Amino acid sequence: MAKLPRSSRLASPVDTGAYGEYRINQRPDDPRPLYRFTGHVEEGSGPGRYHIYAGWFCPWSQRVTIARALAGLQDVVSVSYVDNARDGRGWAFRERYGPDPVNGFTLLRQAYEATEPGFDGHVSVPTLWDRITGRVVSNDFKGIGIDLATRFRHLATPVIETYPRERREEIERLDAWLGPAVNHGVRHAALPGEDGEPARKALHEAFTALDERVGKGRYLVGDAVTEADIRLYVTLVRYGAGITKYPNLWAYARDLYAIPAFRDTTDFSTFTPVGAELPDWAEG
Question: What does the alpha-carbon distance between residue 244 and residue 249 come to, in Å, rounded to a whole number?
Answer without folding.
Answer: 8
